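User:
Care to share a sequence and structure tokens?

Assistant:
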Amino acid sequence: MTPLALDGADIWFEQHGSGGDVLIASASGFGAYPAILAEAPYHCTVVTVQARGFGHSTHLAEPPAAGWLDQWGEDVLAVADHLGIDTFVYTGISHGAGIGWHLARRHPERLRALISVVGTPHDRSGDTSSSAGRRRIVEERRNPAVLEEQFRILGGRTEGEERLLRREQTIAGLVRRHLDYSEEEALVNQGMPFPEATTNEELAKILETIRLPVLSLAGLRDGVISPQSALRAAMAVAHSKTVLFEDEGHFMGDERPHRVAREVRVFLDELADYESNGGTWR
């Protein structure tokens, strides 16, 4: 990993591969996705940016003035500028996808497309400062039993010997990771994308302003990003593409990275055709 010094903070990033399509992702940490897209048969260039406040990047005692999601988005652009990348495909999982939705709204000129994995903006119930699950995780950040409970809710229902074993490994890893967080890391609560939208109708109006190619991958068993959230974005974002997996939940990017990557490869091929056809889908 490499640090980029940025307004008093170090932002760490890593480049994988050197293929044709350039994808950038940001998150608190990464599993197999999206770096898997740098491998055969996908052959992309992938840049992963560790979000400010986590891991090797500088930890913060207070939330950034711009808000977490917008600050993380600006950090992504700074890394892209540092690497000489003008436009790119942004992809992210969960909170990482939230960064992409903010970039799509504030800096659409920098994105060829957005690929959101289990990350469409949350349903609204008046309080947009946090999802209930994330708030509980922050409040009980040193309680392994509560962390495990919340991650089981987050992941959603699954079945089958292989899937159940994989889910246990996922949850155990998440609990260990959160217990190992510094106090600054454990207190980060990024809130919901577009917090100014306090109703689902207001949120849909914001989503209607996004005018770039979007692929949304959603699991219908997700414990925090509801099917209604995925459908709202599908209906509001013009010409977007949504793939719904009945048998997946919030952890599909970690538990089934190849399944996600195959859909991304199809979309990237479609995106190249769209661009060569003057911005028209064929």
User: Anything to note?
Assistant: The chain has a mean pLDDT of 96. The chain has ten helices and eight strands.
